[in-house]
């Protein structure tokens, strides 16, 4: 939520002094790829990436190893978000992040401000598909409806009686 608010209202608000810096750096990328995950103006990077990563650790007083795990997860998520690939280890979550990031950059920052898309869905700032569409598409790709029906039929059957000898 904190990252969404900073991204939408500090980096993309017309009255913010960081908007021009952010758009001149980050939004000059025509297609995302992993090496540009941290390509932004230093002040915009400080506000959008560093503060949402550092302030929770400062507030919750993480153990050093826990903080390093947290940094690894955040770095991996950003790498996947900017990878440009829609087929990722977890297609539902990470594939949706990559699609939303690509649409954010190509839509010149008019939506898709949060990485997971939940805040965008709630606030109505989704560009293109939202979180529910990602879920439906992923369910269709994995034939969830058919698999669920097959499992339901198996559960509905009466168990075979075993004869003891």
What are the key terms here?
165 residues; mainly alpha; 8 helices; 0% strand
What does this structure look like?
- It is a single chain.
- The protein has 165 residues and is mainly α.
- The protein has eight helices and no strands.
- Helix 1 runs antiparallel to helix 3 and helix 5 crosses helix 7.
- It starts with a helix and ends in a 9-residue tail after the last helix.
**How many individual β-strands?**
0
Helix content estimate: 55-70%
| Total count of helical runs of at least 4 residues | 8
- Provide the residue-averaged pLDDT: 74
Query: What is the string of SSEs from the N terminus onward?
Result: HHHHHHHH
Structural class: mainly alpha
Q: What general form does the structure show?
A: globular
Rg, Å, rounded? 21 Å
Major β-sheet annotation: none
How far is it from the N-terminal to the C-terminal residue, by CA?
64 Å
Quote the beta fraction.
under 5%
Query: Runs with pLDDT <50, length 5+?
Result: none
Summarize the entry for a quick read.
The chain is mainly α and 165 residues long. Helix content is 61%, strand content 0%.
Fold topology:
Elements: H1 2-10, H2 18-25, H3 42-60, H4 64-81, H5 91-106, H6 118-123, H7 131-141, H8 144-156
